Amino acid sequence: MSRNSTFDIEAWRNEEIRTELEHRTKVTPAMLHSINKDGLLISVSDAWLDKLGYTREEVIGRRSSEFLTAESRAYALREVLPAFFLTGHSDNIEYQMVCKNGRIIDVLLSAVLDRLPGEAQGVSLAVITDVTALKAAKRQLALSEARYRDLVESQTELVSLASPEGELRFVNHAYARHYGREPDEMIGKSLFDFIPETSRLAVEHHLGKVCSVDHSIENQNQVVLPDGRVRWMAWTNKALRDLDGQVTAIHSVGRDIHDRVVGEQRLKESEARYRLLANHGTDMVFQLDVDLVHRYVSPACYDILGREAEELIGTHLIAITHPEDTERAGSAFQSLVDGDLERHLLLCRLRHRDGRWIWVEAQLKALMDRQSDLPSGIIGTLRDVSERKAIEEQLQEANRQLQTLADQDGLTGLSNRRLFDAAFSREFDLALEGEKDLALLMIDVDWFKSFNDGYGHPAGDRCLKKIGESIRDRVRPGDIVARYGGEEFAVLLPTASLPEAIVIGELIRKSVLQLAIEHKGSPNQFVTVSIGVASLEVGNSSRELLLGRADSALYRAKENGRNIVVRDA
User: Which of 23, 255, 327, 448 is deepest in the core (most CB within 10 A)?
Assistant: First the structure.
């Protein structure tokens, strides 16, 4: 008590009031505390001590804000306490308090200011309620609701809530998109508005049955889209009930099965014709089960693979697939039998009976079991496309060569202006997005017109080719060197800072001088180049600006005697 003796003498001149306040705080089962005008604790309840794990001697005389988290403490000192001593009350202030063992609890604090005799500022009486469990429950509820909504909205299935009479109360985005509308446009409409008149009675009867049972019921019916098309849908419907057992809504999850229904109908109608065509067609027709084992192979397999149909029945298709194509082909087959794909076009190599590899094109489709609505295998057609593949590869190679020619300068073999512009656009955007360096060199051959006039155009062409080679040999891998036009070259330096670009520019200048190409019209007696350097800086938002700055630097290099490297000012 020695550290609080001065406080006791100053704060409690009225023994009767002090005794009454202490009695109030000790006997109450609530968390109470009192502070004086300096924010020091002068009384706390037993419940307060029990909750935070302190003894009375450990807390009396300390600031109440010491038992708050740093964030709550700042809030209390900055806003709550000044307003409290001004107005005389605080209501439902949210704080976080720190227990002696370090545990943090959420609380609500309400306080009033007592004007005690002899105390102009008075003392406070605060009631504190532990709301940790409530806050945690609210956070968990909000998280759960957010997760549920995200789950519903991320589904590709159509999800809705409707009244027992069919009035839509909620639809997810997939549901609205299916009908070409926004979710808000669907709310309040009747789901019967989207059902053909001939099917409405059956759907009404189905919903009545849903409301009479406690489990989900599946149903299939047609719906009408805004463009007038009619499509088959499969629905899983369940009635939601209140505590009294009354149906409040019908929860529905739907998926479009139109293609499957139509496909099954067509398949049923054409099974006989299909087998006739399969047995006499030039394409090999085959059927695999869910284990990817051949269950049917048409006679055309002999013409394509050199094998009899009986040789393949009971074998795995992967067994004759090229090792480089095995993983890709296996993944495609598995996706079909897993229901992830309905159709797939596969191009791969298979081993012919004579040992050679042939390119084949397989049109694959998942076979669906009518009862389980799950894939039961794969049906496909296969044809030899080796000749077509060879022609395509030749064409691709020719296109690559043409593209190379289109992107090259015919004289120097460097990139041309068109390729440079495309690379400049790409690298500039990448540099801006990744906040990376980018530098640009603009290079001009000094007094080149007089060189051409004095030595002739063939010599001028040879000169430009040598300079182009010299520039290309001095840059880094990944840098772009282009003939920009006439006797002008451009070098794009991704990730290069301005100092690095100046060093590369100086290497290029020296290498051209070291070529020692005679030029009597030059003060140096040899061919030289002038170089302007600019780099991307914060605030440069256009390629044109960077190009203009490099061009300005090149102009100053020419003005200052040429055969020099000048950086952007």
Answer: 448
Rounded to an integer, what distance in angstroms lies between the CA atom of residue 267 and that of residue 261? 10
- Terminus-to-terminus CA distance in the chain, angstroms? 74
In a 13 Å sphere around the CA of 399, the CA atoms on its Cβ side amount to 6
| Residue indicated by tokens 């089960």 | 289
Residues 231/225, Cβ–Cβ less than 8 Å = yes
Reported as a single tens digit per residue, the pLDDT across 528-540 is 999 999 998 655 5
pTM (2 d.p.): 0.36
Question: Residue 48: is it exposed, middle or buried by C-beta count within 10 angstroms (0-12/13-18/19+)?
Answer: buried
Which residues are registered as beta bridge partners of 296? 287
Buried b (16+ CB within 10 A) or exposed e, 183-213: beebeebebbebbeeebbeebeebbeebeee
Q: Which residue has the higher pLDDT, 263 or 484?
A: 484
Around Cβ 533, how many Cβ atoms within 10 Å?
A: 30
List of E strands, 131-246: 158-162, 168-171, 217-224, 230-241
Neighbours of 532 (CB within 10 A): 25
Q: How far apart are CA 343 and CA 339, in angstroms?
A: 10
d(CA 215, CA 364): 38
Contact 41, 31 (CB under 8 A): no
Count of positions (residues) in the chain: 569
Q: How far apart are CA 532 and CA 365, in angstroms?
A: 62
Beta bridge partners of 533: 441, 567
Categorize the per-residue pLDDT at 427 as very low, low, confident or very high, splitting at 50, 70 and 90: very high
Burial class (CB in 10 A: 0-12, 13-18, 19+), 109: buried
Place of tokens 């019967």: 192
Amino acid at 271: E
The tokens of 214 are what? Answer: 């406690």
Q: What's the rounded mean pLDDT across residues 129-144?
A: 79
Evaluate if residue 12 carries a pLDDT over 50. Answer: no
Report pLDDT digits (tens) over 190-225: 989 899 999 899 999 999 999 999 899 999 999 998
User: Do the Cβ atoms of 300 and 281 come closer than 8 Å?
Assistant: yes
What are the DSSP E strand ranges found in 23-70?
31-35, 41-44
**How much is the mean pLDDT over the chain?**
85
Q: For residue 86, give the amino acid letter.
A: L
Residue 170 tokens read as 């909620």
492 within 8 A of 440, measured Cβ to Cβ? yes
Tens digit of each residue's pLDDT (9 = 90 or more) over 55-80: 999 999 999 899 999 999 999 999 99
Distance CA 439, CA 446 (A): 22
**160 neighbors 252 (Cβ within 8 angstroms):** yes
H, E, C per residue of 269-315: HHHHHHHHHHHHCCCEEEEEECCCEEEEECCCHHHHHCCCHHHHCCC
For the segment 243-264, the average pLDDT, to the nearest whole number, is: 87
